[in-house]
Design brief:
Elements (H helix, E strand, L loop, with lengths): L3 H11 L3 H14 L3 E2 L11 E6 L3 E6 L9 E7 L4 E12 L2 E9 L12 E8 L5 E6 L19 H4 L14 E5 L11 H14 L9 E7 L4 E3 L5 E4 L2 H15 L7 E7 L16 H11 L7 H9 L2 E4 L3 E2 L21 E4 L3 E2 L10 H13 L4 E3 L9 E2 L3 H5 L4 E6 L1 E2 L7 E4 H14 L4
Parallel strand pairs: 1-2, 4-13, 4-14, 14-20, 15-21, 16-18
Antiparallel strand pairs: 2-3, 3-13, 5-6, 5-10, 6-9, 7-8, 7-10, 11-12, 12-22, 16-20, 17-19
Helix pairs in contact: 1-5, 5-10, 6-7
Amino acid sequence: MSDLIANYKKFLDNGKTERECAAQIIALAEKNGYRELNSLEKITPGDKVYIQKMNKAVALFQIGADSLEKGINVLGAHIDSPRLDIKQNPLYEKDFLVYLNTHYYGGIKKYQWVTLPLAIHGVICTKDGKTVNVCLGENEDEPVFVISDILPHLAQKQLKETASDFIPGENLDLIVGSENPVKDSKEKETGKKKILNLLKEKYGIEEEDFASAELEAVPAGKARDLGLDKSLVLAYGQDDRSCAFASLQAFFDSKAKNTTICCLCVDKEEIGSVGATGMASHFFENAVAELSARTEKGFSELTVRRCLANCSMLSSDVNAAYDPMNPDLFDKNNASFLGGGIVFNKYTGSRGKSGASDANPEFIARLRKVLDEHEVKYQMAELGKVDQGGGGTIAYLAAKYGMNVLDAGVSVLSMHAPWEITSVFDIKQAYNAYKAFLTLE
């Protein structure tokens, strides 16, 4: 436990994008003896395997003694976080400043992203088949990037606008360079040309290579202890990498007995779990089918369907922590608190439970029993007052198979802000809860 939080902060620092998280997960899996599933013709009880999709979603399995038809215990988290994506034709110069044009990803308050030091992470793929990894702005000797804002002396009009309007999405562009104003110069966009030359020198790319790039602007800097007592963690991306890390660590520290166990880390939850790497895809279903094909009995569609229907899953996702500065947004008796332990949401969704997955009480009772046996501290909560809003997770997409699913995760204060706050105690209790859950038979 003493190393858990140190490793957690390291995981956050080295995983500011879904690609970086997936790479870390695979590296840790291989270090722990997991093998790529597609490299195996057969699997037997005790085998440890993984399968990935497009370097952005990973499923890890420990094969139990029972038939797959009896189901799998699944810890499912997402590894994407709100950010600013660099557009495909991003580089431009305007009045001697050079910018990268962005498109925000996920639910953000746009004004929170201005005047912060930002780093750029991602990949650039060239036509000759080369993939260039980019991570710029994290080291002290590297430049950072920023979105400018209006000085208060000239902001009278801006301050009269609503928070959602006074920073338009199209104005969230990163300053990446500048040029000295030269009157009567016949040469145009010299600042942009200078930046392109630097990019070619450092990465060997041309401007057209942005078309096949996947670059993300994220807050620059490392995860930090928060508070004199160091009881809290301040970091980018804790929604939902706090739960992904705790799930992953609990999974590695567990051993499948009769029931096969799984740690599933998917992408795109912040924009609806869409795409080939989101939970709405067939990634998990296909992974189970690949497992079935490698068992002694061989592939059977009925086996896959029975397996999915008989799964038990914790949708490992965060909940909004009670905010003492904004108490009117919460039903205090049904809120989650920092330091209160892992949070269980019987249902999420918005207002009239729109988009929710409503967990069966029988499943919750089974889970309560095993948590109490393992002395895990937990709390039951909702995400704010009924008519204030709400949110969704991947739970409803897993529940469509007929499995038991319950949302279970860490409380987060300042959720979706560039810097989010969690409790050290809650991270530890999430780890304990996930490990206890994997013992269900």
